[in-house]
């Protein structure tokens, strides 16, 4: 357990404009709830160790992570400012946090993102982020956009394209993840972006085209969430939720082929709701080549603020028999996972950022290592 002083947290929340007025001035229940949020107790399974890399107090909702140079870039979904919101963050190997793009530049609610490879022409090195088009609940139900962020121009932000609805009443909403296909793979020189509301993965080209690539059947497949290209580049692995994010009744990892067909047989099934996934590199001990995935557990938004959150999230690996094996438990709402320099980084949004109701920087990042 990582201790975090209550007074420091209250100071941070006040500076961030967090809504604390709904709490009584003195409350043992509040103290207990904050202690649980600020000092999540992560328990590694035998064969692994875990350390808090970035504790609560600096990040709102850390989501997708990408290794860029000596740092890890991530999108931090929170800290809305007027019609703008969300941030791009760089995290160093020792947990130092640097803001690359603050909340006054981006369209709010940044979901997945990736950095354009060389094959994306003049946009090589730019950040392409899947985002909600505008603030508010209604904005979250409208067609999502792809934002282009140019690091060479002081991280200037512009809208690259809007993902079209697949039918008049099936908007490209609740976007989750975005990733570029590997160089030379049969998926071609495209960015792939997933939206859960209409169950579609879109293909984005350097010419500005944004078209549906494949659509999941909600009954047969479930709704697509996070994605990761397999190491051979021949398939796209996608986590799906069955029953919806707020009514999850089972998870799976499905394999999508370059022609858009979806394999009937799942790579792995189980858990409550899978989030991010990644494949262990050669330097991750005896687990090299194995698929690692986070199970969010039951996704909870604590409104009212005093609602306790269940630490039912965990990290799992898929063994050689296709069975889930526990890696670490005790997470609240883990979504992102990424192998970085021999370690596994896990991002947890904790209690979630709710504009006007719950604006607390309680997200955190844990680094997991395989014991040699």
Structure explained in plain terms:
With 372 residues, the chain is mainly beta. It has one domain (6-370): TolB, C-terminal domain (Neuraminidase). 6% of the residues lie in helices and 41% in strands. The protein has helices at 6-15, 28-38, and strands at 43-44, 48-59, 62-68, 71-76, 87-91, 97-101, 110-115, 127-131, 145-150, 156-162, 175-180, 191-195, 200-204, 210-215, 223-229, 236-241, 251-256, 268-270, 274-279, 291-295, 313-318, 324-331, 334-340, 343-348, 363-370. The strands form six sheets. The chain has a five-stranded antiparallel beta sheet, with no helix packed on it. The chain has a four-stranded antiparallel beta sheet with strand order 2-25-24-23. A hairpin with a 6-residue loop joins strand 15 and strand 16 (236-241). The longest helix has 11 residues, at 28-38.
């Amino acid at each position: 357990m990582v201790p975090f002083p209550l007074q420091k947290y209250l100071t941070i929340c006040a500076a961030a404009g967090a809504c604390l007025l709904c709490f009584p001035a003195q409350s043992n229940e509040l103290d207990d709830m904050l202690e649980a949020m600020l000092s999540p107790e992560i328990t590694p399974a035998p064969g692994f160790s875990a350390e808090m890399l970035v504790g609560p107090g600096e990040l709102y909702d850390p989501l997708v992570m990408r290794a860029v140079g000596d740092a890890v870039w991530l999108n931090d979904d929170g800290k809305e400012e007027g019609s703008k919101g969300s941030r791009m963050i760089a995290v160093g190997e020792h947990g130092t946090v640097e803001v690359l793009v603050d909340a006054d530049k981006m369209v709010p609610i940044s979901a997945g993102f990736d950095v354009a490879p060389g094959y994306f022409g003049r946009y090589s090195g730019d950040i392409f982020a899947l985002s909600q088009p505008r603030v508010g609940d209604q904005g979250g139900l409208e067609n999502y956009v792809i934002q282009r962020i140019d690091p060479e121009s002081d991280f200037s932000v512009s809208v690259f394209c809007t993902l079209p609805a697949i039918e008049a009443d099936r908007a490209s909403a609740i976007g989750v993840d975005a990733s570029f296909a590997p160089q030379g793979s049969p998926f071609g020189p495209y960015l792939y972006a997933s939206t859960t509301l209409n169950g579609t993965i879109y293909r984005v080209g350097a010419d500005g085209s944004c078209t549906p690539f494949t659509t999941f059947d909600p009954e047969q497949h479930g709704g697509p969430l996070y994605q990761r290209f397999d190491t051979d580049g021949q398939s796209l692995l996608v986590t799906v939720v069955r029953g919806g994010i707020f009514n999850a009744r089972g998870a799976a990892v499905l394999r999508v082929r370059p022609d858009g067909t979806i394999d009937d047989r799942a790579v792995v099934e189980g858990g409550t709701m899978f989030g991010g996934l990644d494949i262990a590199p050669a330097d991750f001990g005896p687990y090299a080549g194995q698929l690692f995935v986070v199970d969010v557990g039951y996704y909870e938004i604590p409104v009212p603020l005093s609602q306790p959150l269940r630490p039912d999230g965990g990290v799992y690996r898929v063994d050689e028999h296709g069975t889930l094996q526990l890696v670490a438990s005790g997470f609240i709402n883990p979504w992102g996972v990424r192998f970085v320099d021999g370690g596994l980084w896990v991002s947890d949004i904790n209690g979630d950022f709710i504009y006007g109701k719950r604006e607390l920087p309680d997200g955190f990042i844990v680094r997991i290592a395989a014991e040699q």
